[in-house]
Amino acid sequence: MIALRIIARLLDYPDRALFDHQADLEAALTDARELNDAQREQLRTLLRDFSACSLLDLQADYCELFDRGRATSLLLFEHVHGESRDRGQAMVDLLEQYRAAGLELDSRELPDFLPLYLEYLSSRAPEAAREGLVDIAPILALLSARLHQRNSRWAGLLDLLLALSESGIAAEALEPQVAQEARDDTPQALDAVWEEEQIRFLGEQGCASAQQEAHQRRFAGAVAPQYLDVAQATTGITGR
After folding, report:
1. How many domains does the chain contain in total?
2. Does 213 lie in the same domain as 159?
3. Which domain holds residue 196?
4. Is residue 87 predicted with pLDDT exceeding 60?
5. What are 107-158's pLDDT values in tens digits?
6. Backbone phi, then psi, for 239, in 5-degree steps?
7. Where are the coiled-coil regions (predicted)?
8. Same domain, 48 and 157
9. Measured distance CA(120)–CA(222) in Å, rounded
């Protein structure tokens, strides 16, 4: 599914390559047979919306949305395992899944980073890719509801992923729940989390430090493409 590769790129940290290869990404939409005309136009509009922004402004918006707090984290296991020990094993299992498919990470991103996972799915057969989306559909719905609450331009990408999953899960059903949530990206909430993680880090020398690093580092990585120069805008998985 080439659409998953394009969506993965739009969910990755914006860089100059995204702007430079907008035309290639738009051209690749023609080959995205899994999309209907309305979905194809939605992605085309998003691409043009992104490229019409200042790169620095788009990067700032991205960091404000995805790097402040955990509610909108693009690390999938953040929403499943949090800081539990199960998260480490889940990472190992996912890496093995990538390797079994003949893929290796060539970036410093964690394997559960959503754009990486989407790029992996884009290399699978359509039915296998759809099953992979079904596996994360509840997380996609939760992220979509939270992004819509924040009037984010990225919300539509989560809606497209849900539609492609054909899971029947709708983000709208979670809107009442999300409306009751306390925001975790306020200065007060971030200070409280930082203080808690500092204590855990000093006491356990555990995965808190890895989580902090994951939230702090910038997203980058261009890999070999499937279509045109599309993967000048892809994430961090390569074939062996």
Report:
1. 2
2. no
3. 187-221
4. yes
5. 677 888 899 999 999 888 999 999 999 989 999 998 998 898 888 989 999 9
6. -80, 150
7. 22-49
8. yes
9. 14
Shared domain for 91 and 207, answered yes or no, is no
Shared domain check, 200 and 124: no
230 shares a domain with 216:
no
d(CA 138, CA 157): 15
At 21 the three-state DSSP class reads coil
Region 198-213: mean pLDDT is: 40
Residue indicated by tokens 């899960």: 169
Q: Which residues contact 223 (CB under 8 A, 6 or more apart)?
A: 106, 119, 231, 234, 235, 236, 237, 238
Q: How many CB atoms lie within 10 A of CB 207?
A: 18
> Taking the CA atoms of the chain, what radius of gyration do you get in angstroms?
17
Task: For residue 48, give every residue at least 6 positions away whose Cβ sits within 8 Å of its Cβ, in sequence order, or none.
Answer: 22
Q: CB–CB of 196/205 below 8 Å?
A: no
Q: Torsion angle of alpha carbons 39, 80, 212, 179, nearest 10°? A: 60
Residues 195 and 105 in one domain: no
pLDDT at 223 over 50: no
Contacts of 192 (CB under 8 A, 6+ apart): none
Tell me: do 217 and 145 sit in the same domain: no
Residue 100 has pLDDT above 50, yes or no: yes
Say whether pLDDT at 86 is over 80: no
Q: Are 140 and 195 part of one and the same domain? A: no
